[in-house]
Amino acid sequence: MKRFLTPDDIGSFSKALEDARNAKNNPYADQALGRNKTLLLLFFNSSLRTRLSSQRAGFNLGMNVIVMDINKDGWQLETEFGVVMNGDKPEHIREAVPVMGRYCDIIGVRSFAKFENKEEDYSEKILNQFIELSGVPVISLESATRHPLQAFADLFTIEEYKTVERPKVVLTWAPHPKALPQAVPNSFVEWMKVANVDLVVTHPKGYDLAPEFMDGVKYEPDQRKAFEGADFIYAKNWASYSDYGKILSTDRSWTVDEEKMALTNNAKFMHCLPVRRNMIVTDGVIESPNSIVIDEAANRVVSAQVVLKRMLQYIA
Ligand code: CP
After folding, report:
1. What's the pLDDT tens digit per position in 251-263?
2. How many whole angstroms separate alpha carbon 170 and alpha carbon 269?
3. Which residues does the record give as N(2)-succinyl-L-ornithine binding sites (predicted)?
4. Is the torsion defined by CA of 184, 182, 168, 14 positive or negative?
5. How far apart are CA 214 and CA 119, in angstroms?
6. What number of H helices and E strands is found in the chain?
């Protein structure tokens, strides 16, 4: 595996899930594979889970792991072409990336949508320069449009908890005070479309995801109706795609609460975390026995380990 961004990069889901079960049951089985191999985890944005789980996955595979917060620990990078670099950015990304590639065997990079220009964000300008210029396999640790390690962990978590062959999975928008990227819901929809689930998306007017993700996906404007009979409720906020990056609603009638969860088929509650309590979800729901958010976060080690192992096999 040379890059990890979309479900196509992981191939067969049944094989990926088998690999995930093996990684979870026997996390140190492939220590020799990562010996003398170096993983760089590069962050343009904050992280708790992605940073720690990817480090842990690298350690499980016997790798050396370097973590760098580029905003604090490196030179500010210029990402535009053709600029006279007489400002506050002393290094260009087109030198920085190939240099990093000389020091490391695999690079993971987190670079969120900036919400300044839709076309620029959706062309994955930063991530694609790592893919083009690093000379090593690249993992998205959440890019402008996707968060595949989260979606893979979500898929595996649903597989672990499902009680029917084809569960009903509902992705619901929920309110938040800040403008959040669409990467998590985009990837969740992209992966669930391939998985053996009945996916329904519910959100207020103006919050449609990009057509390339929502193509062929069931949309239900009535959140309560969407919740009826659901086996999994996946809550997430995202900013508008059509009115790009804007907050159109903070309507707390969309908060996931006990009354709405009662409409479901005793659904499990999921969220990628971090989550704002009593905006996205009530204390009661997230503290309930049906909340699986901690196991979901724990499975981030598993998804990262499967991907890293395949990259190590590729470069071996
Ligand atoms: N879910 C997730 O990616 O968490 P972090 O932003 O803390 O890494």
Report:
1. 999 999 999 999 9
2. 10
3. 142, 176, 236, 276
4. negative
5. 18
6. 14, 12
Pocket test for ligand 1, best of 43, 45, 49 (most atoms within 8 A of CB): 49
Whether 272 lines ligand 1, by a CB cut-off of 6 Å, is yes
Ligand 1 atom closest to 273 (CA):
1
The ipTM assigned to this model is 0.99
Instruction: Evaluate whether 305 touches 312 at the Cβ level (below 8 Å).
Output: no
Q: Is 176 annotated as a binding residue?
A: yes
Q: Distance between CA atoms of 126 and 117, rounded to whole angstroms?
A: 13
Predicted confidence at residue 233, as pLDDT, reads 99
What is the structure's pLDDT at 232? 99
Q: Distance, CA 263 to ligand 1 centroid (Å)? A: 29
Predicted local confidence at residue 289, as pLDDT? 98
Which ligand 1 atom lies nearest to the CA of residue 142?
3
In sequence order, the β-bridge partners of residue 140 are 109
- Annotation-wise, does 146 bind a ligand? no
pLDDT (0 to 100) of residue 148: 98
Give the dihedral of Cα atoms 48, 92, 184, 43; nearest 10 deg: -10
- Ranges of residues in the chain whose predicted pLDDT is under 50: none
**Token pair in block for residue 101:** 């590639």
Nearest residue to 196 (alpha-carbon basis) of 160, 234, 163, 168: 168
User: Which of the 8 DSSP states describes residue 281?
Assistant: B
What's the pTM value of the predicted model, to 2 decimals?
0.98
Whole-number pLDDT of residue 129: 96
